[in-house]
Amino acid sequence: MIPVEEAIARIFAKLPALGTEAVPLARAHRRVLAAPLVATHSQPPFDASAMDGYAVRAAEVAPGRPLKLAGTSQAGARFVGMMEHGQCVRIFTGAPLPIGADAVIMQEEASAKGNQISFERTPQPGQSVRQQGFDFRRGAELLAAGVALTPAMLGLAASANCPTLTVTRRPRIAIVATGDELVAPGTMPGPDQIIASNSVGLIALLTPFAEKVIDLGIVPDDKQRLESVLLGAFDMGIDVLITTGGASVGERDYVQEVLRDLGVALDFWKLRMRPGKPLMFGTRGRTLVFGLPGNPVSAMVTATVVLKPALRALTGHADPFWPRFGVPTLLGLPPNGPRRHFMRGSLSRNDIGFLQVTPIFETDSSHGTSLALADVLIIQREDDPGSPPGEIVEIIPLNWG
């Protein structure tokens, strides 16, 4: 058995470069930026009004002394010419500031009698003016490579007049479940069979990081059938192959043997973690191969702890392990043994609204109900002596990004 950190480091060392592609903004949500976004113009491109009101020279405004209205500046239709001394210009939010003006007074602080406009107080120069380049200036790096593009980031890219963005390509993933005991959801199981659930949960977990996820279905514990299905997956040119079940060394656990026969160089097959000790990793050319445990909780936990960070790194995320953070535990944690424990937990808020975690003490690796009700995995290090209530523990959110 090897430690979790060592396993992840070995996987990261084998990650191939997937290359990049340009995608339109409409298809770029959650994609990972492969090159910095640099502004090619300043925003706003001119001094603009921050509100509806009147553009003035601040030095010419005195309470009760009127200025002559010279015209209007609207968004998309600026005031043409220079504002003369003793004049003001009606202006609307986002409109260019007239030449000669240096402040804007909101309309609620103005009184109009015909074309004579009076104001309640003298403004400061720059008042209610968005200076040219206030948002960003030409040549500025707006977004760094490695960020997963959010709706606000896409809006920023549009403001920067970038209709397409260069992002990291995503892998094509194939997943197969193994075991005589498995039948597909919606099927009436036999007396010795159970409903297969791993592929459903894993596909949902991994789809955000994949160009395509191919479900290869269920393969019984038959060496020739398994070899045929896995060889077909390799022939499709997939980037990542995931198997569930058959990862141990029982008489009918053929996955490891078949993978070796098909030319997969196995790197490791046991991790010092619970749940999820029997996790395999290897490579066949550029294809990454993961053999996950068959128990539902073990499969999802190993995918969350090991496979998801690997896919985040493969697709260019600057922080493959995001999000992880610390919160106080509402109940104490018992001592842990030599394997790192990823304990199920549920989040709540304390009396002042801060997050806290309640451990779920169910540890059986087939108990899917407890995982479905969990919000996080609590990371309990090897040989940890335990934690009293209120101590800060590290968590991995299960349903965030």
- Report the portion of residues in β strands: 25-35%
Number of domains: 4
The structural class is alpha+beta
The CATH topology assignment of the largest domain is: Molybdenum Cofactor Biosythetic Enzyme, Chain A
Could you tell me how far the N terminus lies from the C terminus, measured between alpha carbons in angstroms? Answer: 30 Å
What integer value in Å does the Rg equal?
Answer: 30 Å
If helices are DSSP runs of H or I spanning 4 or more residues, what is the number of helices? 7
The CATH level-2 architecture of the largest domain is identified as 3-Layer(aba) Sandwich
Instruction: Tell me how many strands there are.
Output: 26
Query: Spans with pLDDT under 50 lasting ≥5 residues?
Result: none
- The average pLDDT is 96
- The CATH class designation of the largest domain is Alpha Beta
CATH superfamily of the largest domain, by name, is MoaB/Mog-like domain
Strand order of the largest sheet: 7-4-6-5-9-8
Main β-sheet description: 6 strands, mixed
Task: Give the overall shape, derived from the CA principal axes.
Answer: elongated
Structural features, described:
- There is one protein chain.
- With 401 residues, the chain is an alpha+beta fold.
- It has 4 domains: 4-18 and 170-314, Molybdenum Cofactor Biosythetic Enzyme, Chain A (3-Layer(aba) Sandwich); 20-42 and 144-168, Molybdopterin biosynthesis moea protein, domain 2, CATH 3.90.105; 48-130, Molybdopterin biosynthesis moeA protein, domain 3; 325-397, MoeA, C-terminal, domain IV (Beta-clip, Beta Barrel), CATH 2.40.340.
- Helix content is 18%, strand content 29%.
- It has a 6-stranded mixed sheet, with no helix packed on it.
- Helix 1 (4-13) packs across helix 6 (296-314) and helix 3 (198-206) packs parallel to helix 6 (296-314).
- The radius of gyration is 30 Å and the shape is elongated.
